[in-house]
Specification:
The protein is of the alpha+beta class. It has 6 domains: 67 residues; 176 residues, Nucleotidyltransferase, domain 5; 65 residues; 97 residues, no CATH class; 46 residues, no CATH class; 77 residues, no CATH class. Helices cover 45% and strands 12% of the residues. It is built from 26 helices and 13 strands. It has a 7-stranded mixed beta sheet, with helices on both faces. β6, α8 and β7 form a beta-alpha-beta unit. α7 packs parallel to α8, α16 runs antiparallel to α17 and α17 crosses α19.
Amino acid sequence: MKVFPGTTPGTILFRVYEFVELHNHALLSTNSMEFSKKWRRLGFTERHFIHKLSLNKIGPNIAHNLQCLLKGGSHNVHGTKTDFKNAARDSRVFITDRDAQMLVDTLKARSENLPNFSFDFKIVGCELRSVFWADDVSKCNYAVFGDVLGFDATYRTNKYGMIFVLFTGVDHHKKCVTCGAGLLYDETIESYKWLLEQFLKSHKTQPKLVLTDQDAATKQAVPAMFGQSVHRLCMWHIVKKIPLKISGDLLSNENLRVSIHKLVWNLFITPSTFEEQWNQLMDGLQLSDHHWLKEIYAIREQWVPCYFREIQWCCLMKTTSRCESSNALFKVNTRKSNTLVQFLLCFGTALDRQQNTQLKLDTETETTTPHMQQKLPIEIHASRIHTRRIFLEVQKEIYRGMKRCYITSSSETDGTKIYNIAHTNKRFQIVNNYVVSLIIVPGTIVMCTCMCYTHSGYLCRHVFCVFQYNQIVEIPTKYLLARWMRNTFPDRVHDIANKCSADDDAESVIRRNIFDTLTECVDRLRHKTENLNDILARVKDIRDRLFTEFPTEPSCNSKRAIISELIGQLDTVDVLIKPPTGIKNKGSGTKRQVGVVEQLFERRNKNPRLCGKCNKYVFDHDARNIEKVQAAKEAAAAVGTDDLSALGTAATETAYDHSVNRYLLRSARRASS
């Protein structure tokens, strides 16, 4: 190396002898600086932004669009859409085959660092097969609201197809709360037994009533593990099959479905009355020998409400709609391409949102005063002890006890007052009669034959009618249940430490305080350009001094180090547990197969379309296949038989399948008659 005259010894200088323009790319213009390699590099803030949005099911494309909007244009955003996509990809690449091990390590760390957190897992060979976990909030939920429990399996929450099972209860605002969760490899009896066994280990006690769908595995696993609980099947899953199981002319008879629904949903009849009316209905419709109706009647004690009317809280859950609502809440945040670690982070985000809703309702109950319809002392008393949602229901019972109920007769025997109450509708027509028994001394004891207190947990309108007559101005303490009252939850449930997705470490808190402080200053100085320039100059001065003190990027700002921090896992993990493979459950892969009859009714439930040729709103054809459908109808009417082979090619070439052709044939026969 040549040393040039006039330079300090040890200094290396270079001299340009020749410049070849062809060997160099064109320099970027000022307007294109956003596409330079240095500007496109994503730092911690950008990757943190992408990661947090992904926990709310917001992809990198929308994340980039949001950044462009927030920062005033794409020229102010580090990275392009492709860079944002690559950042999301890098997180999945970082996890790869260490997914199951990272999931177990994360849950293990929570059990060691969080109070009252429990989890367990099951491996076969070296593959993860089942996981169950419940934190302190879930255990508090179950301790207060675990008398009625529902659980339902859902799919498409992770890329392996593991079944997500959520245990759901009903809180004092009548909102869904989580009592535990699990992931299963398959839906066998053994898998559900293992899951329920872990649930009992975590919560120690069994619920009074368990609600599930008609899944064959759960129907056997629940009674085996919850021997002290009443197992109830979802009514909706059974009743919705009526149009699919009862076909022919009876299906078009609206009175059939109305009669069955009116009978099976009636909570105020006795089992013997239900059986008598059911048999009368089946005989009148000539359905006594119908195979499916005989099957559901044989298991009537597992799903018809009147068989549960004496079980406490039986009205909190009649269907698994609450379970499906909870599943939908968690699926809002997750997607089927998520790894197990990403799914767990999304689960925490959704759980925090559920807790925030509960805290919001608690605050509204404590800080606002409801409207008093009658301003009665008993109404005011109810508003002071119940949550807002429950008070509104109790208030409705008080109001209707005054307006729609009246005493027809009364008597007294051995200190017990007996009142016959007439129950009227909106037109003040008597629709039913109930009997209320009242003992005032010693202590107020009241009973009503409608059993509202048993199945709902608060007194009915008939009792409030009697209370008004006897000038009782407060609800007796015996009938004030803790699950419907204010402040029934321990305060620690809403602590920041119990929020799964909260960044409460010291560095995150300081970073947020810096951003918030700068934001407050900038907001205070809006439209004051000189003052804003002064703040900018000071901030740049601080930046220059920091960059002088720390001239190079720290190792913690590398891509893998940032991803490791965001996911909460070390870069080096010993893999002893591998993700599951080969899962083939009914809802984990492709969409379930829909039967031809169900397809028919899905089409019938759609809105009619305007046919361009006949100029009518119709269900069964459009301008493309009107000739084929009309030919099939004419052939069906001419044949007058159920033998579809006689319809010829005209019927088989229609847009409808075999079962739909049968429906067209029956419609044509009814029209011709």
